Structure formats: C-alpha cells, structure tokens
C-alpha cells in the first residue's frame, strides 16, 4: 500500500502486499478509545492530586500527566500520517482538537517536517534536521545528537531540555501561531475560540494555578524528557552489518516503559518507517510478520527495554563520539 511518506528508496524487507493492505485498514473506534483512555487518565490524575493535596501525590501526577501528554502527541503523530480517520479533513480536525492543539502544535505543522523525515531518513532533506536541529549547516551531527555519550553527557543533555525552558518555548511558539502553518483560516479561528473558551473557564473557576501545576509543569518536564529519550532510542548509535538496517531501532519496552516513555507502540520504529500506512494499534502484528524474516532477525536492532536501547547510546568511561554509520 503506497503512502505519501514512504521512504525514498528500497526497504530491505518487502511483505506480501495483501498483508500490508490488511494491516493498513483503519479502525477509528480503536483510535477514539485510545484518545479517551489518555484523557481519562489525565483527568483522574488531576482529580486525585487535587483531592489529596500532598506534594508526593502532586509529583506523581506531574509524571503521569507528562507521560500522557506524550501519548497524545504519539496519537497525533498517527493523524499526521493520515492514520487516525479515513476522511482526511476529519482526520486533521479530530487530530488537532483532541490531540495536537492541546499540545501547542498542529497536525499539519508536524506533517510538514515529519513527512520529509520519513522520505529522506537520516539523509539530506530529513525533516528532523530542521525540527530537532540534529545537524549543522555542513550536515554534521550537532553535539546534542552525537553518540555514544558518557552517562554524565547524556544527563546534561536531558537536564538542558527538562529545565522548563524548552517546554516554555514550545508553549509560546504554539500560542503565537508557530507550528500552526498548514492550518486553514477556519482552523485558526476555531483554535483561538477554543483557547479563549478554556481561558474563560479557567477564570470563572479560578483554576489558573491548577493549569500551571497540572499542565504546564508536566509539559515542560516529564513530557519533554520522554520526547528526547524516545528520539534517542529511535535513531541514535545504531550499528548493523547491513547499512539498510542502520537508520532506526525498534524498542519493545515492558509495561512501565510503555506507560512512562514509549506509549501506543511508538517503539516499533523500524516497522513504522518501513510501512507508515500501518496505524499504531497494528504495529505489533507488523513486527511479528517481519520477525519471521531471516534478514530482519539477523540485522535489525530490536531491543527489549528502554534501558537496553539507551545502553547502546550511553557508554561509561569514553569520550562522546560519533559511531561509524
């Protein structure tokens, strides 16, 4: 099944087109159920924390909410691939209202960068070079994205991002319209009206402090950490005897890892890059089909935990350097 974000060039493992078409069929009920679960967990965490009103519970709520905010962006990522709903305009409206706009981005803005990331993975034209500043003007990896790092080097990288400023920048960028390009004029009007309605409700119920504690702080801390840890696992320090497998890594975490860092099957990243038409809820089945292929088993870098993936990127006792690619 062809998709507008297919990799430019061949992929190592071509599955039976009938299997790809079957796995690419959308199930909107599953997508809506996932969205409902994420928002319900956020609401429950806020309700419990405000009722108990103790700092350990508040801290736990910040982590849980930040993780669910990351999950919302992961499902919005499916919307950017037109994998949420069959009708593309409805796909974008639902993706924006329920997922992207609350996270200060837009489905269309993310698609602008992410589509090129897929088409030109780890090569000139890769949208991540602009979106995440992974490379300098000469096409060399910047320090932040050069691996492996020492544990201290990686901790400093995360601390630099989690110390509120990156998240605050993303929020301000979204509020003033940055990352909203591609949204229709009607979309901008609806977005502003929705945010105005939220501001009015916060004022009426005197809930601005709660917004700060239970949305802004989680967004600027755990949500940011999860984003950067995820991206490290996906595309850093990957080695394979077959260079066609050296662009991305699959990480299949346990229950805690899925909840806190890699939600909604986002860790199945080799699979997603090769077949972007497959929605997030069918990626495990896609992985099972690829795992039957000898080439995939021999050359794909698939780790069974987030720590295993990070160990590939964080090596004690050495200076930061770029592994040969």
Describe the model.
- The protein has 325 residues and is mainly α.
- It has one domain (17-313).
- The chain is built from 15 helices and 2 strands.
- A two-stranded parallel sheet has the order 1-2.
- Helix 3 packs antiparallel against helix 4 and helix 3 packs across helix 5 (107-119).
Write the layout of secondary structure elements.
Blueprint (H helix, E strand, L loop, with lengths): L16 H7 L4 H25 L2 H26 L7 H13 L6 H13 L8 H4 L19 H12 L2 H11 L9 H20 L3 H28 L14 E2 L3 H6 L8 H6 L8 H8 L3 H6 L2 E2 L2 H8 L12
Parallel strand pairs: 1-2
Helix pairs in contact: 2-3, 3-4, 3-5, 3-10, 8-10
Describe, in short, the structure shown:
This protein has 15 helices and two strands. It has 325 residues and is mainly alpha-helical. It has a two-stranded parallel sheet.
How many DSSP helices? Answer: 15
- Give the SSE string: HHHHHHHHHHEHHHHEH
Distance between the termini: 30 Å
Query: Strand arrangement, largest sheet?
Result: 1-2
